[in-house]
Amino acid sequence: MAAANEQFVDWDIIHVTGNAPLSLEDSTVNVVAAKIEPKLASAIIRQLNHICPLENLRHVKRVKRENSQGKVELSIILCLSSENGSSIEAFPSGVRQLIDNYNLTFFYAKVSKCQATSKEEWEEQCKLWPTSFHPPTNPEGVSGLNAEEIKSIYSSMKSVLQLVNSNIQYKVVNAAVIVNPSNGQIISNAQDDILPLLRSSEENISSNLNYEEMKYKWSNNKEVACVNPWGWLEQSCPDHNVIPCDGGFTLHPLKHAAMVAIEKAAVRDRQFFPNSSPCGNDCYSEFYSVMGPAKRLKTEEVQLTEKVSERFSDLASEATRPYLCTGFDIYLAWEPCPMCAMALVHQRIKRIFYAFQNQRVGALGTVHRLQGEKSLNHHYSVFRILVPDKALGEIFLEKLKD
Q: What pTM was estimated for this model as a whole?
């Protein structure tokens, strides 16, 4: 968690990891332990490290120290609990011998199966049995964000939520904003655009719509494309659900907010960078045309190298078109569906921020966790912004005044 800025009191941000939280049964493993005298600890540890090392539990501390009525008590892990049974006969022979030699009384305990990835997770693990925790040197989660970044993130999310209240037929739609985090520039913004929305009059909106009604629409978000991907089939279209092929009423079931924002970013790139690629076709054709026969005179090779270097130098000095949305952030009101989440993988988005969970088909934490799929050739970081109810009301009222 991260502390909210004064301007965003009670706002918070959560890092949505690629691995789903494990249940207690899945996240722990049973071990055999015993209480030992402190003076025997060193000798027993040396023997256990030799006869039964905990190779797959290196994050777990072998000895647990507790204070009981002013007296120090030590417990030590002897070995993993066998699936074959709980009797002493199932223990490794070396462990059985050690139990006999020191007259130990063993018991069973649970320890964490995996190393903690956050301080909070580590604290929970230590309630079962002590583990070690080494914070990452380059944190990718919330701990890697400074106060200025968090303020900028909250501000961008506020802009997205202002787009949710579309003032159009009382509809609540998903919204998306793509931002270049290096300079805060907005690359594109968009709303769900599956059905054409007819604008209502400002007077009609202000007199008939209030925050409680809009809040109800937020919680019952059947109009949001990512939450209800097949909802367009249920929409009543003008002209008796007939979609004309030549003009008139049109419908596009793929135009979710994220998809439209990606499309607008591409249109922007074509306007600002007329060439189809950062290098341009001329550059590549020139490069390959001069790569002719293998045997060339030394002077020709030098001239060729200088010519190619000059050409690339000239191009590098100009502003080059970005590759898709590489390095950009996207802010969404609702957690994206699998289609949108996969499109953002292909676009090489760096980070995704969303406010509301998608309980039906959420692809980034609620139902699926696409960001943790190892087979993908690109992975982005995912964060959820917790927006307090009061802030949502203020954003809605601000929208009505516009």
A: 0.64
